[in-house]
User: What shape does this take?
Amino acid sequence: MKHRTFFWFFMPTGLAMLLFIALPILSVVVQSMHTPHEAVLLTVENCTPFKCTEETTIDQDATAAIRSAEPLGRFVGLDIYLDRAHLAVGEVGGAWASSASWGEFFSSLSNLPFYRAMSFTLVFIFAVTPMVIILGLLIALSVNSIYARLRGIVIFFSLLPFVITPLIGALVLYWMIDSRGILGNLLQWMAGDPSLSLKASTGLMWVSLIIYGIWHAAPFAFVIFYAGLQTLPQDQMEAAQIDGASRFQRVRYVILPHLMPLVTFVTLIQLMDNFRVFEPVIGFNAEAHATSLSWAIFNDLGGETRQFSSAAATSVITIIGVAILLTPVLIRTWRDFKGKV
Amino acid sequence: MASRAQNLPIGLRIALTSFVVIWLIMAAFPFVWTLWGSFKVELDFFSIADWTNAITGYRTEQTYGSPFTGAGYHGAWVEEGFLRNVINTFIVCFFVVLTSLTIGTLGGYALSRSGYRYTFWLLITALIFRAMPPITLVAGYMLPFFEWNVWGILPTTIIVLVAINQPFTLWMLHSFFQSIPKELDESAKVDGCTQFQAFRHVIIPVMWPGVITTGLFSFLLAYNDFAVTAMLLSEDNRTMVPQVAAFLGTTYTEGNIMFAVAAVVSATVPLFILVMFFQRQIVSGLTAGAVKG
Assistant: This one.
């Protein structure tokens, strides 16, 4: 295809991505280094015949003028990144100096919004990702060995938690786990504690969010692994059987190695997806116990006072996090490409 | 395959089948429960006294004389005007799917037919864009949209969702077009067609399976989005998902939580129908991404 033809074919989609993905990223970076202008103060000296007093007022006209002249605000460099709502460098240093033990240090970190969000996000990523892969594998192996006629129905119902709107899926589970819902009741009965409530316990809230994460993503892993099982080389399976490999050994030494590239694929996708955990925090009304970076952006942007600069700084930090998680994917794609050429 | 199932020892087969059944209950029961509960009053669905009330509808019967009531649906659809949000959702989804398939097909086709190196870098860029959480971009949209006075209306949201959709659409359609033999459109070009005519007369007739699969995922992305629609739409133009979130804000205090339950069930129905009719395409779309990496 000639460059010219390519250009015209690609132009609409390229323009859409340039204007609404590339430019916003730039705009977020710029915004994160600016903060709204402070109000212009006016000091007036009022003199009465007896004495003079100084009075400070906000000069509304001058403030409005400077704010409309430079809507971005004033340049502050990396200050927003370092303030208390983000990396909180000063507070972390202070906590490091004053804490006697690691435990004390971590508990003072958990009062800072950024580290609170990161601690939940990391626990969420490292709990959900392996569980999704294990559960997905187990379902795929089981479904592959039951009667073929039942498989369509199993796949149909399995897809529901995956295609459901994340916020709605979270609500559906949340209402069941609520202390007055069916699962909440069951928990209270099992624990023998009628006052047990999800809303009051950080640990329970984290566990419920993790269960939601597994419930939502396991079907994805299942479908991928199930498709992989359909391409299993039958001659290898038969050879293993003739060599006397037990059922478990066949799974361990033939099926798992065959599925390994898919396991890597699901892991990489899951790491990125779980890093941006957001809707369940809203659906579970969990912000008192668990937050994430995406939730922090949402919280800054919503409400009466929209804190664009703070949201932008969190966005840039999130983008950097995604970029780190994306690196292995990019390296893999690069290798595939070089292999093809 | 059937022969392998019969080879299994009976004990193992029972164990595997019961595992599948447990998973099915985990996957489907929450939806069944919420559907059933949406026809009850709040004191039954969230019952303090006795959890079996949610099944039998004890309080519902006391209030309405029958164990089922449409009060939640009446509240959501009639009193709160949920129909407007439903219509908004379908306007947004329709135009997002239409636009993103139109420009994505052209772009994906071009990427699959051009042998130059820049196509690789464009695809890599698309991959990076695809990984960006939409909420991080929203912070970049809001100030300009306020300045230009385009915040809050449906067309803005549609364009933003189309753009967010493009990286995924390009990857899907790129790999789909690569599976269509190049000889098809090249022979048309030998016969004197321009590239666009070759695309129009040779490729378009055979591209529908891939386009439909891609369209399904575009629809899901637009339908399921919360971050963009919640932040970029004004109160009057809300789609379903932000409206459900808004119900929660107002109804937790008013005690009308059943409105939200009814709205949630209503918003689930289209997805249910979608999976029912397009299960095969959804599965093939998911696995296409995995096999291609």
In short: The mean pLDDT of chain A is 88. The radius of gyration of chain A is 28 Å. Chain A has 15 helices and four strands.
